[in-house]
Amino acid sequence: MESEQLYNRGYCRNSYNSIASASSDEELLDGAGIVMDFHTTEDDNLLDGDATSPGSNYVMSNGGGVASSSTHLLDFLEEPIPGVGTYDDFHTIDWVREKCKDRERHRKVIKRKSRHGEFTKSLYDAWSGWLVVTLTGLASGALAGLIDIAADWMNDIKEGVCLSAMWFNHEQCCWTSNETTWAELILGQAEGPGSYIMNYFMYIYWALSFAFLAVCLVKVFAPYACGSGIPEIKTILSGFIIRGYLGKWTLMIKTITLVLAVASGLSLGKEGPLVHVACCCGNIFSYLFPKYSKNEAKKREVLSAASAAGVSVAFGAPIGGVLFSLEEVSYYFPLKTLWRSFFAALVAAFVLRSINPFGNSRLVLFYVEYHTPWYLFELLPFILLGVFGGLWGAFFIRANIAWCRRRKSTRFGKYPVLEVILVAAITAVVAFPNPYTRQNTSELIKELFTDCGPLESSQLCQYRSQMNGSKAFSDNPNHPAGPGVYAAIWQLCLALIFKIIMTIFTFGLKVPSGLFIPSMAIGAIAGRIVGIAVEQLAYYHHDWFLFKEWCEVGADCITPGLYAMVGAAACLGGVTRMTVSLVVIVFELTGGLEYIVPLMAAVMTSKWVGDAFGREGIYESHIRLNGYPFLDAKEEFTHTTLAREVMRPRRSDPPLAVLTQDDLTVEELQSVINETSYNGFPVIVSKESQRLVGFALRRDITIAIENARRKQEGILLNSRVYFTQHAPTLPADSPRPLKLRSILDMSPFTVTDHTPMEIVVDIFRKLGLRQCLVTHNGNVLGIITKKNILEHLEELKHHTPPLVTSPAPPPSTHNTSPHTLPLRLRPSVVSSV
Fold this sequence. Notes:
By secondary structure, the chain is mostly helical. Helix content is 51%, strand content 6%. It has a three-stranded mixed beta sheet with strand order 5-7-8. A three-stranded mixed beta sheet has the order 6-9-10. Strands 11-12-13 form a three-stranded mixed beta sheet. Mean pLDDT is 79; it is low at 1-78, 466-471 and 800-833.
């Protein structure tokens, strides 16, 4: 019994934080519609915002209580209270409490296992994790195959239709030689200026139609369906709650609009949003199993596995998907989550392979086979491509964040439909004349990766050949470049500039938009140009010391397609700052396991160069831009500040509101709640002794009082409220007291005022805390929340000296208020961040 009571004390750890939610649809379109302001004080409340606001859901843990005595005091352990274990929107979960709840659930399952008929339930509970990831993998693979097929068909319809079979895409229609352009269909002619203008017009018409339909569906039905989704997934996996972001409406609208956005020809990809789609599937299926639906921490294990399945179907890279989930998005990744992520990625890849959306009997579109090995001297151009990738990543992050910040702060951001139409129109008008920008980005990458061979008809493979004194064209790249190659290089240079500019303005639009494919396309273009340059250099100067040892005259030496693959990995690494998972994704994507060393060299170089300009990747930058409460585990804290320098309240703030353990009345307690907006209160021994007893949440107190009045007679305004084990001595004519020990967190996390902030930040990261109390010799001085830490890190990043305050002296005993102590400090928002 004693051990159970000790457990319940630990179980009763419930504290909440909040940040302002969106107030309009336009704000909702900006990611989660919230922006954390590190300089305002209007929201500086203790924990979850105002619990008395309409629509609030009260949350209370059942713990810490002991059986009632002969006074028949209400004890909340006897029956569940509505709202227990749930969280409001834009709140952070309590990882410690959720893990305690799961351990208690598991203990009960084991205890009932020996009973008759309970073995099947325990078996179902044990296998529910595998069932939910299986369903997630099946749904993710099926949706990914559907999106791939639909996007290819709608992208090809911009250039023409297949009259014999409307459901055929461009490649399938060519098999029957029945492809018809819009000029042939409308004007009856396939050549001439009129035909070109008509095809040009129809291309722009379809692009604008798809883009307009996509942004309208997002704005009207599911504002959360816009963007990549990975920054929000990272934040959700860290414990933050964004209601509706992984719901069924978001899933349905994102699936439809992702097809439309890709088909519109905008400089975006579908790979990032597929992670969001997979996580929506995981979230929906988790509600079928109480083990996950009633525990937010366990649900995030499913979401980690779902993100692995999303990358698996996006690139056909199941192992890379698991590593992506581990390296990039997951905050808590136990070993069993690793196994289930692997299984979910396997199931999703199997389903996608069964659907065979690319028609090549492979998981991926970019599978290549190179016939020439790489040589040691090629590491130099590979590293140069890595440098280019790092520079591009740093430039893109700064430019895109600057544009997104301007969008938020100007009137232009209030018209998302107009912005999407404008960007789509510019993209279509500029893209059509250039064949490398007109075609689908995935097809462009495939062409750039492909090595020249007898069956290749691309301009990139038109080399000159000397035969019997006559000039002819050859597909052998170890010959002088022909006019087609030079024309292709100029077109690729223009395509590179176009892609760089349009990707900056496209990522962040209010349509589903991924960044993987556009970044890879930029790197592939740059890599192919560098590859052709090195190839021609080796041909004309094969006697140089760099080429003499490896490149014989007339022999295969340089593979330009390999340079495109390395450049694609380098640019994607420069933008996202991924390393291990990126290398594995690329060699799974292309089948180029032999070229893993060049990939590793380029990716590491791009990361080092990018980190020299800023350690944040594009996803972390957007998390900071949107103000999400995310503590990045990769960020180092090297400053020498102490807890007392960061804690709230500061000297100029109003005093900290606290509760005494046994001398408050219901009326006084309600007065504290009505007169303050704090959502949590430290409980101390008495006005004379400020030693900490525990921590009580505002909403727990409110729901406890309401529940007591509804279910127990005799609870009046002058009833004594106490948080102790036994009732205080009261006069005989006193009304029945109210015991609230069951809602008291008996073991709140505390640190002393001299604790280094380096340790405090580490505690918050590893335990997933939302707040901890600061004490001096056992007396409460203040509180530190996750938001306070983020504010402090922001101040240090901008080299703003933090406001240093010395610890206040012990509170005076001549306090006129029975419920607050003049600590001369004021708590900031112990926001549920």
